[in-house]
Amino acid sequence: MTGRMVRIAELDIKCTDMNAQADLYKFIFQKYLEIVPAAQRGGITIWGINDKDSWVGENNAPLLYAGSTYIRKPAYEALYLYLCELAGVDPYKEVPVK
C-alpha cells in the first residue's frame, strides 16, 4: 500500500435481487476491512439512505432502505449483523435507555 488513506465514497449498489445486493454490500465491507490496513481506513459512505430519494432512481433500489416508510432491506440487515459480529455485540440484545 501507499500509506495513503483509502475511502469508499458514494457507495450504492443498483440491484433488483435484494439478497444478491445484501451479499455484495457485505462483501465490499469485508474486503475493505481485509485489504486496507487499519491506519489507512478513511471510511465507507453510502450514497443516501432511502431508495425513494436516490439519485439513480427508486427502481434501481441502490440503498439500504426502501420506500418513503424507510423499510430496512436485506442489505441493511446483512451489514448490521456483520458489523455487530465484528464488534462482538449481540444484535438482538436490547440496550437500556437512560
Key words describing this protein structure:
2 helices, alpha+beta, single chain, two-stranded parallel ribbon, 98 residues, globular, 33% helix
Low-confidence segments: none
The secondary structure category is alpha+beta
Rg, please? Answer: 15 Å
Number of strands: 4
Overall 3D geometry? globular
Strand content is 15-25%
The level of helicity is 25-40%
Largest sheet: 2 strands, parallel
Number of helices: 2
Distance between the termini: 44 Å
SSE run: EHEEEH
**Nearest-integer average pLDDT:** 91
Biggest sheet strand line-up: 1-2
Domain count: 1
Topology overview:
Layout: E1 6-11, H1 18-35, E2 41-46, E3 65-66, E4 71-72, H2 74-87
Parallel strand pairs: 1-2
Antiparallel strand pairs: 3-4
Question: How would you describe this structure to a colleague?
Answer:
It is a single chain. The protein is built from 2 helices and 4 strands. It is α+β, with helices and mostly antiparallel strands and 98 residues long. The chain has a two-stranded parallel sheet with strand order 1-2. It has a two-stranded antiparallel sheet with strand order 3-4. The protein has helices at residues 18-35, 74-87; strands spanning 6-11, 41-46, 65-66, 71-72. The protein has one domain (6-87). The radius of gyration is 15 Å and the shape is globular. The relative contact order is 0.20.
What's this, in brief?
The protein is of the alpha+beta class and 98 residues long. The chain is built from 2 helices and 4 strands. Helix 1 runs parallel beside helix 2.
